[in-house]
Amino acid sequence: MAGLQLVTPATSPMGPFFGLPWQQEAIHDNIYTPRKYQVELLEAAIEHNTIVCLNTGSGKTFIADVFPAVSVVQQAAAVRTHSDLQVGEYTDVKETSSWTHQRWREEIMENQVLVMTCHIFLHILRNKFLPLSKINLVVFDDCHLAITDHPYCDIMKLFEGCPGSPRILGLTASILNGKCDPSELEHKIQNLERILRSNAETATDLVVLDRYASQPREVVLDCGPYTDKSGLSSCLQAELDDALYFLSDCNFCVGREDRDPTFISKQVLGDCRAVLQVLGPWCADKAAGIMVRELQKYIKHEQEELSRKFLLFTDTILRKVHALCEEHFSPASLDLKFVTPKVLRLLEILHEYKPFERQQFESVEWYNNRNQDNYVSWSDSEDEDEDEEVEAKERPEANFPSPFTNILCGIIFVERRYTAVVLNRLIKEAGKQDPELAYISSNFITGHSIGKNQPRNKQMEVEFRKQEEVLRKFRAHETNLLIATSIVEEGVDIPKCNLVVRFDLPAEYRSYVQSKGRARAPVSNYIMLADSERTRTFEDDLTTYKAIEKILRNKCSKTVEVSEFEVEQVLDDDDVLPPYVLHSEDGGPRVTINTAIGHINRYCARLPSDPFTHLAPKCKTAERQDERFQSTLYLPINSPLRGPTMSCARLAEKAVALLCCEKLHKIGELDDHLMPVGKETVKYEEELDLHDEEETNVPGRPGSTKRRQCYPKAIPECLRDSYAVSQQTYYLYVIGMVLTTPLPDELNFRRRKLYPPEDTTRCFGILTAKPIPRVRRGPRPVTISIELQKSGFALDGAQLDLITRLHQYVFSHILRLEKPALEFKPTLADSAYCVLPLNVVGDSHILDMDFMFMEDIERSEARTGIPTTQYTKQNPFTFKLEDYQDAVIIPRYRNFDQPHRFYVADVYTDLTPLSKFPSPEYETFAEYYKTKYNLDLSNLNQPLLDVDHTSSRLNLLTPRHLNQKGKALPLSSAEKRKAKWESLQNKQILVPELCAIHPIPASLWRKAVCLPSILYRLHCLLTAEELRAQTASEAGVGAQTLPPDFRCPTLTQHMSS
């Protein structure tokens, strides 16, 4: 390529496979992965006086939220929001200057944080209203003002000679704002450190850290001017300029910019013009098409007539742009005459990364031995012969491309969302037309789209899911090129790239260094594309950026210069400590002192976390009295591992990492390939066909059926050792149930009668030896409450035994939760309490333990089996309606081992055993029972029972008509449901004589079915309450003990997909 020499993996002198991106994950090898810069700076501020140098809008705000700033009232609001500290704010110098010593003493006693202007602070120090020795921390916002004639200087003079001076935290953004002069930067930092008696700190992500890894080759490319031979670009520019001028000429008095009816129109047309200028007319046409589709949604939902008219105006302009483009080229195919030189230059760069076929490589020996160098193969098999090799070429590409079909791993940084979207489409079109670009699998990732009236929560959730999927594919190398806005400059875990292109030049130092830091593969290029008029000025900016980087290196506490002695040792220190070897044979997996840090970083990167959590190890190195060094390693779960003492700090850090790798492998966190055990490992092992269950025993994905993950279940303290035993006093709680949201008619398919649980007095209660705290009520169709009924009473041994037997009966026989491997030993259980029936006893109208009912259950023949009662013509069955109105019945002629239980839904007095049977096989019900079961009925005039199965569904936390994601299940039409359930064939009809009545009534049985869900939710809420109380105690947030009359608000439930 003319004017550009790129070193790609294929042209590297280290060999064609050196530095392939999937060999080099986004893992630091010689230093521990830097933690989030806010946390890093916070720790520095805790250890010593610190000046925090960060850009506006980055970490400075976070730190200010943690430490109250002595500047403006807004900071006081931030402290109140993020802590429970008492905050006083003082802004009026005239008012506070008249306050007496007593008034200031009252303010100091009442508040823990004082937020004030520098003049007020200087006043109270000079008048000794508040001695410096009584202050723990002083925070100076905009502390760079201290190097000018400012009250900060006078305040710091008062620190001289003061014993026990407070900790100082200075916050400044202006030092790194925009394009600062390097010579001024160094001078400012030195002066600030001297005046504020502090160390200037910046974050490790502001410098390219890994001094031992090769840095990317930096290239600034002059792409030349765009020649508009057709005049289309000028015509489109004029149309968009005129439209934007018209919109800017429309003046509306609005409080906020986004309430301006022209706000969206200006934003859309401005973005379209930017795409035209940066990418050319072909891309502007594609952007206009996307924007028209988005505008239709806004037009449809816009309520304000004026705003709607401006949206329609914008829609017309965009359609005009499309019409003008159609006159010059076909939108169906890419026409490179209508793109800018930047785009052409980018396509040339991508040509350089064209893959090679397998036979073009001469380094067969390196390929055969690649696994000895910790190379992770994405090809099909390592032992295939030549015939299989030929067949592999003809097979379609797998999800994970082999190194022979994909050398590129790159990012293109752009400024605007639409630029990323359209540039991705252009590259895909180019791949269709140019076979040499067909290897590119591109995607884009951006921020959120525009709009003021869209549903932000839902939109952000959908956008987040899309972005996570894009990043997943890029990490897995299913995608080899990512077009991105600044969203992936920092804070996103992606692989080390061998190509990073700044399509739009970095506007400031932070943007430059963070995008450059993505090019971390051993052979990589960092290319900045510039227009002719920007090339020279940007080269000056680049010189400035490099000078700033040099200064910041010296100011970053994590990049202290190492001595030449240490550097020499780093190059050859594998023999300092013996490696950890899994297998003694040659080429077996091993960890050496030089590779250990990389393994630790990789392990931490694979630990489960949410998108907002950045898991990284923390290593502290200390010099001992014998002038040797020792490091302590803290994993994200804060498990400290102390390593052996070494001659230098670098070796100490590596040695503790080696020790940690050995321990992680022994506890199963690293597999026998020394890879973190997780879904990525399982996925590539499946690609390598390592999951042959007959030959290997590689574990499945964590949490799957092949590899279940066990964890200690949290048990609320109030339920531990709380089982009722003799010679104690007890607490009795009522489990109250109230039907608050009846089942709607359209979901009551069988048109059954609803039975509100509050209509019957008999219910369940909890007997425990410890009090249960109040918990919130849940958002269920049935509202549950746990209320204390009585306490401080005693029970004798016989009563406790009866309660225990009844408790076991409910869960073993009614709910059938007892399994063969389970033993009923309530006094040994982690969570132990009794569930027992309650009822209004005697004339008291107060719920209490119903011992008579419990004894009746124990005496009942139908309690655990099927009664053997026999009826004859001489002793016929007598039907009593009241016996069946709230009954659970058991057929006595089938399923003797596990009898079926039915609720009686209705009594058909118009049907008898002589009525016509629904099936043509039998004439009557009596004939059916005689033929099938050889049963003779003694009473042929008894009515028949319409019954429903008792529910075996014990998880009632998700409504029956919703799936687990909360989506409504499909319903058949009302006519079909009505016809189905009115047919006698679809009903369960039983004969009373052939059924036994269970001692548990149906009203109580329905409540028993709810017990597993109620008790599960109770455990969760009690655990949450313990966490709340612990937080209140240890962090001082909220009340540790709630007042007796306190009622928690009812929980709300939001189910979404």
Automatic annotation (TrEMBL):
Q: Provide the Helicase ATP-binding domain boundaries.
A: 41-193
Q: Name one GO biological process term.
A: siRNA processing
Give the Enzyme Commission number.
Answer: 3.1.26.3
Q: Would you say which domain of life the source belongs to?
A: Eukaryota
Q: Does the keyword Oxidoreductase apply?
A: no
Q: Which residues form the Helicase C-terminal domain?
A: 399-568
Listed GO cellular component terms?
cytoplasm; nucleus; RISC-loading complex
Q: Which Pfam families match?
A: DEAD (PF00270), Dicer_dimer (PF03368), Dicer_PBD (PF20930), Dicer_platform (PF20931), Helicase_C (PF00271), PAZ (PF02170)
In this chain the Dicer dsRNA-binding fold domain maps to 596-684
Domain (PAZ) ranges: 867-999
- Extent of Acidic residues compositional bias: 380-391
Q: Which UniProt keywords apply?
A: ATP-binding, Endonuclease, Hydrolase, Magnesium, Metal-binding, Nuclease, Nucleotide-binding, RNA-binding, RNA-mediated gene silencing
The family line of this record is: Belongs to the helicase family. Dicer subfamily.
**What is the name listed in the Swiss-Prot or TrEMBL entry for this protein?**
ribonuclease III
- Originating organism: Gasterosteus aculeatus aculeatus
